[in-house]
Amino acid sequence: MSKVIKILGTGCPKCQSMTNVVKDVVSTNNIDASIEKVEDIVEIMKFNIMTTPALVIDDVITIKGRVPTKDEVLALLN
């Protein structure tokens, strides 16, 4: 079953870095996932987080306020 990944962030450099890390891990490991970039502040607020970027996998907030390593993302997706 495909995972649904959401990256919450308004487009700051850290948000872009997180997006690149996640896309890289998904493509390198042939993970079946859709990646959605959520930049709308109203949508971000629905997740009740105060710091971006945040990584949401299948509607669960897994990382917030920092850019994860590729190994961390891979572990979360497996």
Please, could you describe this protein's structure?
- The protein has one domain (3-77): Glutaredoxin (3-Layer(aba) Sandwich), CATH 3.40.30.10.
- Strand 3 and strand 4 form a beta hairpin.
- The chain has three helices and four strands.
- A four-stranded mixed beta sheet has the order 2-1-3-4.
- By secondary structure, it is of the alpha+beta class.
- It is globular, with a radius of gyration of 11 Å.
- The mean pLDDT is 96.
- It has helices at 13-28, 41-45, 70-77, and strands at residues 3-8, 33-38, 54-57, 60-64.
| Low-pLDDT runs | none
Briefly, what CATH class?
A: Alpha Beta
Radius of gyration computed on alpha carbons: 11 Å
**End-to-end separation:** 12 Å
Q: How many structural domains does the protein architecture include?
A: 1
Outline the biggest β-sheet.
Answer: 4 strands, mixed
Proportion in helices: 25-40%
Run of helices and strands = EHEHEEH
Tell me what portion of residues adopts beta-strand conformation.
25-35%
Helix-strand makeup class: alpha+beta
Mean pLDDT reading: 96
Tell me the total number of β-strands.
4
Predict the CATH topology.
Glutaredoxin
CATH structural architecture: 3-Layer(aba) Sandwich
- Any idea what the shape is? globular
- Structure annotation, total helices: 3
**Numbering strands along the chain, what is their spatial order in the largest sheet?**
2-1-3-4
What name goes with the CATH superfamily?
A: Glutaredoxin
